[in-house]
Amino acid sequence: MSLNNQYDNISGYHLYSEPLNVLPVKPKLLVNTINQYSYCIANQDPEFKRSLQESDILLPDGIGVVMATRFLTGKTVKKIAGADLHLYLLKSLNERNGKCFYLGATTQTLDKIKAKVAIEYPNIKVETYSPPFKKEFSVSDNNKMFEAVNSFKPDVLFVGMTAPKQEVWATKNKGALDAKLICSIGAVFDFYAGTIKRPNKIWIKLGLEWLGRLTSEPMRLWKRYLYFGPVFAGLILKEKFKLMLVRSAIEPIYMIKALRSAA
Q1: Is residue 166 part of a domain?
Q2: How far is C-alpha 12 from the geometric centre of its chain's CA atoms?
Q3: Fewer CB within 10 Å: N-end or C-end of the chain?
Q4: CA distance 255 to 161
């Protein structure tokens, strides 16, 4: 279950609204992210939705989710991208001679990540594993991944299998993984390795990272932003309408109770 006291609720998702340096302390913590695309996909995929809702930490990774939270709840949350979490944890691990494990992507990408971490964060011990590229893993596939991770016992396990596969897998197998912190961060593997370039910081500060990604990979990402963007807006408007109906039904009851108490 989520640690709801530190979160803002949007459509049943409890979004983390604190700085990363006050992440809650638990024996094992599962961190996922949500953006407008994953919100739309989860609306059609109950297993994916359940995985996001069962996250210990669910980061608002997208300006659309940040704006929707403000629209629905009146509260302000700060966008925290998977890339932000990744860099924060690397700095933290480097300071305390920690260990991290990268699970996902290709061997070539993982080799680039390992080499880069060795230069930028020399105090971190790193191991990697590239699982087979398939829609569903077999029992044998899972056992090999468990063995690779658990023999290393990382402080942080980074999972990069793309959504919704990575979130569903991490949620299902959280108990079998010997890692203190499990983070599903998808495209961050490619960003950090340099196989895909993350948009310039100016785009990010302006809340237009999505536009930067779209212009750099239009064929792959057009549907995510140009189709699912309007779908997301429609779902949020529908959610707002539901909230208005609930409030209009509840408010008269409170008024009657108040009048009775006054009498």
Answers
A1: yes
A2: 15
A3: C
A4: 51
pLDDT digits (tens, 9 = 90+) for 22-71: 888 788 999 999 999 999 999 999 999 999 999 999 999 988 999 999 99
Angle at 55 between CA 53 and CA 56, to 5 degrees: 130
User: For residue 161, what is the DSSP state?
Assistant: S
Torsion region of 153: left, alpha or beta (phi above 0 gives left; psi -120 to 50 gives alpha) = left
So what's the pLDDT on residue 191? 92
Residues 6+ positions from 258 with CB-CB distance below 8 Å: none
C-alpha separations of 190 from 17, 83, 122, 221, 239 in Å: 26, 10, 20, 15, 34
Rounded Cα distance, 81 and 85, in Å: 7
Which domain does 9 fall in, by range?
A: 4-221
159: nearest Cα among 151, 149, 203, 150: 149
∠ Cα 242 244 245 (to 5°): 65
Q: Are 36 and 229 in contact (CB under 8 A)?
A: yes
pTM greater than 0.70: yes
Q: Two tokens at 235?
A: 């779902």
Buried b (16+ CB within 10 A) or exposed e, 202-233: ebbeeebbbebbbeeeeeeeeebbeebbebbe
Beta carbons of 71 and 11 less than 8 angstroms apart? no
Cα–Cα distance, 28 to 189 (Å, whole number): 22
Give domain status of residue 250, yes or no. no
Strand, coil or helix: 72: helix
pLDDT of res. 195: 87
Q: How many domains does the chain have?
A: 1
For residue 136, give the DSSP letter.
S
If you ran DSSP here, which 8-state letter would residue 207 be given?
Answer: T
Give the whole-angstrom CA distance, residue 12 versus residue 144: 34
The type of residue at 47 is E
